[in-house]
Design brief:
Layout lengths: L8 H9 L4 H22 L2 H21 L8 H20 L24 H19 L3 H12 L4 H8 L3 H21 L7
Helix pairs in contact: 1-2, 2-3, 2-4, 3-4, 5-8, 6-8, 7-8
C-alpha cells in the first residue's frame, strides 16, 4: 500500500477493514472538520453536535467492521448521510426542529424569526412552526428531503445533489415544487403563516 496520506478514502476504508487500524484515524482526520461543522450547522448546539459526531463515527466503525460497507467512491457523502440521519433522530426525540432564515426571495421559512418576543408572539410562532411541520409532512418524500437538507441542513444544492444522488437541476426542481406545494396546501387550509 502506498503512503496513507496519498490513499483515497476507498483505499483507506478497505485497509481498515483488513486490519490496518491506523487507516481509520487517517479517514477521521481527513473528514472530521467537515462532518462536525455540518452537524453543528444542523443542531446549533455544541454539546449535541459533539455527541452526534461521536455517534456518527461509532456507526461508521461498526459498519466498516461488519463488512457491510459498500464503497462507491462516496465515503464522505455516506458519512454525512449518517450524521444527517442521527441529527434528524435527535430532533424527533427532543420534539424540536431548528429553523434558519434564508436569503433571496420570500419563502415560508422567513416567517420563522427566532428573536425575543412577547408570550403572545411566542405562542403564535409556535403555532406557525407546527403548521410548517404539518405542511412538510404532506410533501412527497423526495421534496421533503431536499427541503430539510437545504433549510435545516444549510447544504448547497450541489451538496444536496451529491447526498441524494440526483442532478443539481433535479434538486432545484424538487425544492421549487416543495415550496409551491406548501404554499398551495397552506392556502387550501386557510393557514396564516405570518405573525
Amino acid at each position: 500500500m502506498p503512503k496513507t496520506e496519498q490513499c483515497s478514502d476507498k483505499e483507506l476504508a478497505a485497509a481498515y477493514c483488513n486490519g490496518e487500524k491506523g487507516c481509520f484515524e487517517m479517514l477521521l482526520n481527513r473528514h472530521k472538520d467537515r462532518v462536525y461543522n455540518y452537524i453543528q450547522s444542523l443542531v446549533k448546539d455544541k454539546a449535541l453536535a459533539e455527541d452526534i459526531f461521536q455517534d456518527t463515527f461509532i456507526k461508521v466503525i461498526g459498519t466498516l467492521r461488519s463488512g457491510s460497507y459498500n464503497d462507491e467512491g462516496k465515503f464522505i457523502q455516506w458519512v454525512l448521510r449518517i450524521a444527517h440521519n442521527l441529527a434528524i433522530d435527535s430532533f424527533r426525540k427532543s420534539g424540536r426542529m431548528p429553523m434558519v432564515k434564508t436569503d433571496g426571495e420570500f419563502d415560508i421559512f422567513t416567517v420563522l424569526n427566532t428573536c425575543d418576543a412577547s408570550v403572545e408572539d411566542r405562542i403564535i410562532r409556535k403555532q406557525i412552526h407546527n403548521d410548517v411541520r404539518s405542511l412538510m409532512k404532506q410533501l412527497p418524500p423526495e421534496q421533503r428531503r431536499v427541503l430539510i437538507l437545504r433549510h435545516y441542513g444549510d447544504m448547497t444544492f450541489k451538496e444536496i445533489a451529491q447526498t441524494t444522488g440526483v442532478s443539481i437541476n433535479t434538486a432545484l426542481g424538487r425544492m421549487r415544487y416543495a415550496l409551491i406545494n406548501m404554499r398551495r396546501i397552506a392556502e387550501e387550509n386557510a393557514m396564516i403563516l405570518q405573525a
